[in-house]
User: What shape does this take?
Amino acid sequence: MSNKIGYVWNTLYSWMDTGSGPVFAANFEAKLQPISHHMAHPDTKRRFNELVCTSGQMDLLTSIKAIAATDEDILRVHTPAVLDNLKRISGLAGGGDVGDGITHVGNGALNIAYLSAGGAIELTKQVVSREVSTGYALINPPGHHATRNQSMGFCLFNNTSVAAAYAKDVLGLKRVAIVDWDVHHGNGTQDIWWEDSSVLTISLHQNLCFPSDSGFTSERGEGEGFGYNLNIPLPPGGGNAAYHYAFEKVVIPALKKYQPELIIIGSGFDASIMDPLGRMMVTADGFKTMAKMAVDCAEEVCGGRIAFIQEGGYSPQYLPFCGVAVVQALTQCDTIGDSLIGLVGGMGGDILLEHEKQIVDEVEKLLVDLH
Ligand code: ZN
Assistant: This one.
């Protein structure tokens, strides 16, 4: 088996035009001023890649070329309406909103979305075939809010689901798990696999954050899929302790019980302590610990087959350190530390609080329906 660690990045990921609004479109009447950086501006991810390059990690990684996903790849998990909508808007000179008022995409966004989903596929393909042992796909735009029928929440195609469907339909896998630690609920991923037990979906997120009407523990899938969707809605303020407790009590036991042939991590960094769109307190080291736990679990249940696929994250200052920390968990070689830990450490996120423990313990009981 190869001990190479795969890495996906494409310059065009940083060409996503997210419009001139702050989050909603700039609007004269609403006094929403134009701003150079929309919340989902791709610079945050470009800076992550640049820290990978300048930290010395790139020398330890094997570059994987993103190849554009095909319509067939996209249509395994989305209705034609999603594709047609994006094709239409992407063809307009100035682009437009995909439908929810916060997801502006510029001209040519379709091509970048194909490359993003395609990057997820390429990494998955090489992890499954063991050309690389593990890997990180730093792709953009993100995907986990995109439902079967609609792009939304800065997400165009559901990249982790496109990769999981490829692993099943093309590579012949029978069981795939998607663990999503982005601070927002993975509503799109949940929707796509709602009635399907062949993909276990687990979302750790801030309770009532986004979308505020989903992500509850009571959403468990239906029919064949009942029991194969686990939501862990953590209270605002949760840090490393809450997330690690959730991993110990729910995520790792669920993966061991389910025995997937491949684990996909939806790796968003907006649960970080400096993120403007979340209210959680995870540090770079906290993400690294979760990554290590996931990698160790993959060694035990699926021959080490684990692929990390980028989701959200909006702190241009801190996301690069969180991202590189996870990459270092894969390369098992630390070339840099967290240069902001002096500022963000010691704020209480390392202490497990009773109301955090309670919700995790409640979800742990749901594992009984997982087989
Ligand atoms: Zn998010």
Remarks:
- The pocket of zinc ion is lined by residues 182-184, 268, 270, 312 (CB under 6 Å).
- The first helix runs from residue 43 to 54.
- The chain has one domain: 5-369.
- The beta strands are 5-8, 62-64, 96-97, 104-105, 134-137, 176-180, 199-206, 229-234, 262-267, 306-310.
